[in-house]
Amino acid sequence: MKLKELERPAVQAWSPASQYPVYLATGTSAQQLDASFSTNGTLEIFEIDFRDPSLDLKHKGVLSASSRFYKLIWGNIGDGLLEGSGVIAGGGDNGMLTLYSVAHILSPGKEPVIAQRQKHTGAVRALDFNPFQGNLLASGASDSEIFIWDLNNLNVPRTPGSKSQQPPEDIKALAWNRQVQHILSSAHPSGKAVVWDLRKNEPIIKVSDHSNRMHSSGLAWHPDIATQLVLCSEDDRFPVIQLWDLRFASSPLKVLESHSRGILSVSWSQADAELLLSSAKDNQILCWNLGSNEVVYKLPTQSSWCFDVQWCPRDPPVFSAASFDGWIRLYSVMGRSWEVQQMRQADKISSFFSKGQPLPPLQVPEQGAQASLIPPLKNPPKWLRRPAGVSFAFGGKLVTFGLPSTPAHQMPQPCLRLVFISQVITESELLRRSAELQEALESGNLLNYCQNKIEQTSLQSEKMLWQFLKVTLEEDSRMKFLKLLGYSKDEFQKKTSEHITEEASASSSFFDELVPQNMTPWEIPITEGTLILRERNALCGSRWAQSSWT
């Protein structure tokens, strides 16, 4: 996603990560000419405000320079020097190295030029500040010249050693090691990379491709692993990026091949060591995942070559790209369609002309309607990943993960992340009782478990409860339930039989009282009413018989 843009034929330099707000310094490029063919040099500083939805940068300071620039770099110097804003170093023609005070550029009134030194032969194309000692600046130019400058004493620069390259070559890039403060590397057009040890003032190793097809245009050290670096080739016949490990310097560990033409610059993300940016003559800007060796982010084809890409030190997803068409553009790898940004700009313009009435829908020409889709990164980058996490699980389990205690450069690659599962105990008595129950369930010895509970409890109600639970698990539980309730089988049978006998004698005497005393047993008395009913029934029966026969 494009965030900002600036029309300047210039080289660029980001402010250090500790600097806020974020600034971008631009210096008129010595390799470009604008439409006016002006050869004047200008150093400018812009503030980057991502809260502003517009694409413009806020201009904060400007300074006329005596020469145009091949390279700019912004260093952060402590000890109260330069009022804490840092210093900008610019490499120009004829071996000129100029140092500028950022504070004096942002607040005019004092002389912004700290010093100018012309020690080099030819253009100064390579600059880099030491990340451990901010007062040390390495510069490289033609004729294989490398100088180490101490900003506290610029009179006599030192060299890392004798010129190692014969015949002498231009220094295309310089880079201090990100883990070891006295290690410096240089890249040469012949494809070689020389690693210097400033304690010994001599090169300790030279890295080169045996095919002799490399034409080095840039290099970068691994942010975490001290022995690894990348080299890129600007030769159209061999447009590759090589990852080297100095412990095995006979051949590269990896070779990245997705550009179709020579590569002009590389930049390694300090926030995520797996991400590497590259720009090439095929008008493409690619972001590589060095863990999987694949392109995880790709900008659409540009209109011109991009000769410099740089990650923003403070905002990890942001990077800048300076191209030969005279534009510096800021992007984010958390990409999406440009169509969203175009519609937002169109809505903003429409608000000035609506006058309370909605405007008709915008009919975008077909060519302009084709949105350049920029897919986001396939995997979340390191700055979005949780450094640590914790979650509770069932059974008092606690699952945790976090950063390893071993330094990153000592970890094996790929780095294995450990997940720890621990038992959290807050109520030891409850846990003990739970363990006893679990053991009884697994062994099936529930009778003993209930008996122990009966013996351990002091409350009569709980004792009775465990006794009932125990009975349910025993054989002949029905009879034992009766006994537990206070009944005896023999007494129960005795009382039942006595009750049945009493009931039988009581019912017999009841029926005996119903029989008249002057009648013999089983004799049915006949009264006058009974005779009348018998006669009536006989008559009814004879009539029914006659009707049935007739």
Automatic annotation (TrEMBL):
Cellular localization per UniProt: Cytoplasmic vesicle, COPII-coated vesicle membrane; Endoplasmic reticulum membrane
SMART domains in the record: WD40
SUPFAM superfamilies registered for this protein in UniProt: WD40 repeat-like
GO MF terms held by the record: structural molecule activity
Gene3D superfamilies assigned: 1.25.40.1030, YVTN repeat-like/Quinoprotein amine dehydrogenase
Membrane topology, as annotated: Peripheral membrane protein
InterPro entries from the UniProt entry: SEC31-like, WD40/YVTN_repeat-like_dom_sf, WD40_repeat_CS, WD40_repeat_dom_sf, WD40_rpt
GO biological process: COPII-coated vesicle cargo loading; endoplasmic reticulum organization; protein transport
Superkingdom as given in the UniProt entry: Eukaryota
GO CC terms: COPII vesicle coat; endoplasmic reticulum exit site; endoplasmic reticulum membrane
WD repeat ranges per the UniProt record: 117-159, 256-298
Keywords, sorted A to Z: Cytoplasm, Cytoplasmic vesicle, Endoplasmic reticulum, ER-Golgi transport, Membrane, Protein transport, Repeat, Transport, WD repeat
A Pfam family: WD40
Keyword rRNA-binding: no
Family: Belongs to the WD repeat SEC31 family.
Official protein name in the record: Protein transport protein Sec31B isoform X3
Taxonomic placement: Eukaryota, Metazoa, Chordata, Craniata, Vertebrata
Gene name of the encoded protein: LOC102743054
